[in-house]
Amino acid sequence: MKKILSILIALIVLGIVAALALAYAPFKPTPANETLAADWKAEPGRGEYVMRAGDCMACHTANGGESMAGGRGIESPLGTIWSSNITPDKETGIGNWTLDQFRAAMVDGVGGHGQQLYPAMPYENYRFMTESDLRALYDYIQTEVKPVKNEVQATSLTFPFNMRFGLRAWNWLALSGEAKFKPMAGDEQQIRGQYLVEGAGHCAACHSPRTTFMAQDGTRLSDASFLTGGMVDEWTAPALRGKDARVQKWTAEEIAAYLATGRNAHAVANGEMALVVEHSMQYMTDADLNAMAVFLKSMDGQPVEAVPAKVAAAGPRSMPALPADEAGKATATLLTSASPDMPVGARLYLDNCAACHFVSGKGAPEIFPELQGNAMVLGKDANPFVSVILNGTSVPSTSRRPMHLAMQGYADRLTDEEVAQLASFIRNGWGNKASNVSASDVSKVRKHTQAAAAPERAQ
Question: Which range is the signal sequence, renumbered to this chain (predicted)?
Fold first, then answer.
């Protein structure tokens, strides 16, 4: 008994020593991964372009708030994390940060005052960016962004997640390998696409799964789980890689169009991806959009066709709706018959959905997405799809496609049982194969939506 007690005391002492080491051991920042002259200056416009590529504005701008002034609540499994003010205001922003401090935040997840940043900030990905891009971004923020005095609400998570020094241990687990981009064995276009996807674009932050410790399970092309699908803020981030990835059935031209406009012949962007398109991707050059698309199509050695130099070209286009294919013919025939004894889910589809998505389930190209083979429709977690039925969704206006598209929600029109019947019908129509949705599943999503909307109504 005395021996066991001695071991327990020793373990407790070791734990305390380890905690103190994490809290007080000197921080050693990662050095620059590129040597630049002390007086190096980025070419005009580069810093703003890097900001757009990194999608800084989407997270660091609150709804109705000033650009980059922080205050947007980012939901995580640990609680709400409030984004910081990254304008050059010297009191509430980062106006007093040095370049070294800025690099430490981007690469190591350590803020200007030595505080560990929560990994809602995707430094797991930004650490692959070149020093020249980081420096261009720093100079842009410090000299071109409007300073905004805005004291952001402090992030206050429950114990033990409020003890930020523990993130040093988390970083040892999550930040594997060098903080440096490692190009694939491809051509210049593929390598540029890889750099944007892995680094500034931080696609893995949403589209890679998470480990037990909530780190990204795959941040580089060489990682087996890289871009194999994930979840973010209650939304499914579909797989971009692998034989079952719907995106791999698109052409590189269609992928580039989706990135630029949030829509193509198969799908429209919603949820977090809509914000990415609105604040980031629509501002990318055609060359970079094509590079990302080509990389995504060829990252596992697949052959990829040449892409047109112009992405999502403007002008009148004839894009007729497609008829039902062989897999969808039986469902289309059932819906066309409009028989009084057809299943409830089918009748609900005719009443509420067929006018836009058609009996073929193919939708209207670049306007209403196809439901046959749709990644969200077929998601293992049906909640995001149910949420869209209940609450609707929208696609932002972009410079290449200025029409703002919106789908109404049906929360006030359909009961939980009706939404369940409708969702189950769509998840199994036109050759789709996915689990059915129950009324209790819908009820949970409805209650979650109402709870999330309550603070907004109170304001």
Answer: none
- Mean pLDDT, 10 residues at a time, over the chain (459 residues)? 44 40 64 91 97 96 93 83 94 96 96 87 96 98 97 79 77 86 95 98 95 91 95 83 91 97 92 93 98 97 92 78 91 94 96 96 92 93 94 92 92 97 98 97 91 53
Distance in angstroms between the alpha carbons of the first and the last residue of the chain: 60
d(CA 168, CA 108): 10
Annotated binding site: 56, 59-60, 203, 206-207, 353, 356-357
Tokens read off for 425 = 């019908």
Report the alpha-carbon distance of residue 375 to residue 229 in Å, rounded.
10
73, 131 in Cβ contact below 8 A? Answer: no
Q: How far is Cα 329 from Cα 323, in angstroms, rounded to an integer?
A: 9
Token pair 């694939």 is at which residue? 184
User: Can you tell me the distance from the alpha carbon of 138 to that of 134, in angstroms, rounded to the nearest whole number?
Assistant: 6
Please report, for residues 195, 219, 245, 296, 375, the alpha-carbon distance to residue 304 in angstroms, rounded to integers and kept in the order given: 18, 23, 16, 10, 22
**Torsion angle in degrees (nearest 10) through CA of 68, 240, 33, 86:** 10
Q: Kindly state the tokens that stand for 168.
A: 């040093």
Q: Is the pTM of this model over 0.85?
A: yes
Quick check: 366 and 265 in contact, CB under 8 A? yes
Burial of 129 per CB tally in 10 Å (0-12, 13-18, 19+) = buried
How far does CA 131 lie from the centroid of its chain?
Answer: 24
Residue labelled with tokens 């969808």? 328
Q: Which amino acid is at 396?
A: P
Q: Distance (Å, rounded) from C-alpha 273 to C-alpha 396?
A: 10
Sequence letter at residue 290: N
Give the position of tokens 């103190």. Answer: 20
Q: Do 129 and 33 touch, CB atoms closer than 8 A?
A: no
Please calculate the CA angle 146-57-96 and round it to the nearest 5 degrees.
45
CA dihedral 159, 161, 165, 170 (to 10 degrees): 140
Q: Single out the residue of 96, 111, 108, 188 nearest to residue 141, CA to CA.
A: 96
